[in-house]
Each structure stands twice: as C-alpha cells, then as structure tokens.
Amino acid sequence: MVDLKTQYHKIKEEIDAAVIDVLESSAFINGKPVQEFAGNLASYLDIKYVIPCANGTDALQIAMMALDLQPGDEVITPSFTYIATTEVVALLRLKPVFVEVDAKTFCIDTKELRKAITSKTKAIVPVHLYGQAANMEEIMKIASEYNLFVIEDNAQAIGCNYFFSDGSKKKTGTIGTIGTTSFFPSKNLGCYGDGGAIYTNDDTLAAKMRMIANHGQSKRYYHDIVGCNSRLDTIQAAMLNIKLQKLDEYIAAREKVANYYDKAFEHSSHIITPYRASYSNHVFHQYTLILERVNRNGLNEYLASKNIPSMIYYPVPGHRQKMFASFNSSAYNLPVTDWLTERVISLPIHSEMDEEQLFYITDAVLKFVNS
Ligand SMILES: *Cc1c(COP(=O)(O)O)cnc(C)c1O
Fold it and tell me: Is the Cα torsion angle 7, 8, 9, 12 positive or negative in sign?
C-alpha cells in the first residue's frame, strides 16, 4: 500500500546522518531534536503548543485525560474509524456514543451528531478519515452551542487545510480544543517506528497534557496528577524533522496519484471515487473507492494475484466490535456505516508511485469490475 523503502532511499543521507547524530549525542530520551520537532510542527500547523508523545493512540488518551471527564460521560465519535479513536473512550471508563458518517465524506454526519447529544455529552471526537476533513465549521458551531470539547483525530489528515466560510483558513487538528496525530510509518507524516503528537492553543490544557504524558509531574519526582509515560524517541524526532520539510511535497504527490485514479475511473458505473469537500483539500492518506455491484473479495483476490495490494478500511465498524458489547453497541442503527463497510476498498497510494504502476493498477481494477 505504501513504498517506504523507495522514499527512505531518496532521503537516506539526511536520515542516516540525523540518526548517527543522535547516537553520538547519546541523548536518547528527550534529546534536543524532540523540542526542535515540537517547535517545527507548531510553526507548520500554526498552533501554540505541540506535545510529542509515543503514538497516536496515546495522544487521544492524554487529550481525553486532560479534560477531567467523569466515568459515564458521553463522548461522541463516528463508528466508521480506526479502533484507536473509540477504544480510548472506553479505556477511560467514558461512554462511546457512535454516530453515523456522511456517505460522501466518510466523516461524522453533523445532523446525526446533533441528535446524539444528551445532558451527559461532554466531547466530540471527529475523525478526518482517509485525509478528508470532517465538516469542522458545523461541528464547532454545535460544540459551542452545547459547550462541548472537540478533539480532532488528525492521524490521517496532517497537513490538510480547512477553509471557513468567512475566508479564513486553518490546518485540521488546530480547529477544535485539541488535535491528535500519529507518526506511524505509513501515515502521511510517518517516522521509522511509533510516534505521535497532541496540539492545542490552550495554555492550561497544554501544561496539563505535558504533565500527563510525563507521569503527572512538572517538577521531577513530584507527581501532582495521575499520568502515563508517553514520549517521542529522540531518534524518531530527528528523522521527523527531515520528513516534516517534505510533507507538502508528499501530499502533492499523493494528490497527483488521486487525480490519475479519479480520471481512470470517472466513467465506470461500478466505482464511486472519493468525494472532495469544498471546505478543505484532501490529503489522501487513503484512496478509497465505493464499489457498486462488484464482488469486493473477488476484486481484492484478483488484484493480489497481480501483485497489487488493496485493503478494506475498516471491515468491522466500531458499533459492531465485541469490545463494545457492554455498551449495547450492536443496537445502534447506522445504515450508512454498514453500507460503506460492505463496499469500500482502498488502493495503493503514496509519494513514490509512477504512471506505469498507476496504469497497471487501474487497468486491472477496470478489467475486473467490467467483467
Ligand atoms: C493510526 C490512527 C490512530 C492511532 O495511531 P497509532 O500511532 O497507531 O497509535 C488513531 N486514529 C486514527 C484515525 C488512525 O488512523
């Protein structure tokens, strides 16, 4: 699905030198590159605070821990997302409330979101799925009406620009109360192992999240609140400093791939290509098709026989996971989520694809769906 090796070889000299620098400095934990990266990412995102942490799941957990939510408080999330988004809600003894997604954007349906609000609702966790932003303008309107926190799960959309109706522009993840990111290797800004970050403009929350990620201490060995141990490795930060400079270039390369796919599939009555909302660009973490009247497993196997990877993100939505049985989650009626779960398929997309590969892939997909 991604070609991390080719990408590495293009920047090998810089990456190798950065790693050797860290090895020579022996500052493996909280070395200089970690704070440098936090500063670089903060300027890229145009946000006041970036707190690096160990992975994107921890980022969500630390964000939710900082909001002083009480057991049983309700957190609204889409069901159609990676499990990390909803898992941490349950882990913190909060109640995940699963909401339908929009059939076009794959992101939380704001009309259904409004209906799901109760007196116990405390937070909304929109997910910018596959690199397409959720309708943040409407979500922020609802959040301010009901006085709710908004944690943007930005793991799949780092670098995405959101355009407000008043003409202003912000990066996704910097619009809500807190934004979270993952640097898992295959993410648009991936490191060479695990990594994550949390961002906010709120001074108090920033200080608190920094403490939570560091065993609840701001002064060494004085632990004021219960926290955890969640750090970004110095080596990963050093490499991320290099890759962050290339992020916009990587996003542009992904968009070129998406444009090629769009054009190749535009006349197929069996394929719905990804929708691009007018309020944001699309950073194409995934290129995900909706298939109509196509045997999806058959397509997946046919592509595999031609050495073309394809993936189903996600085969089981949150409300149908056994993990959430105690929330009576199977009683939810989310027809769009179920419909998408049965029809989506993601094709390879990354910064290193050439036209020959794209021709080979689109030719194979069209041959199968038209047969
Ligand atoms: C990858 C991802 C995460 C979790 O990131 P990790 O670094 O793997 O913990 C959370 N949410 C979404 C939507 C993701 O895609």
Answer: positive
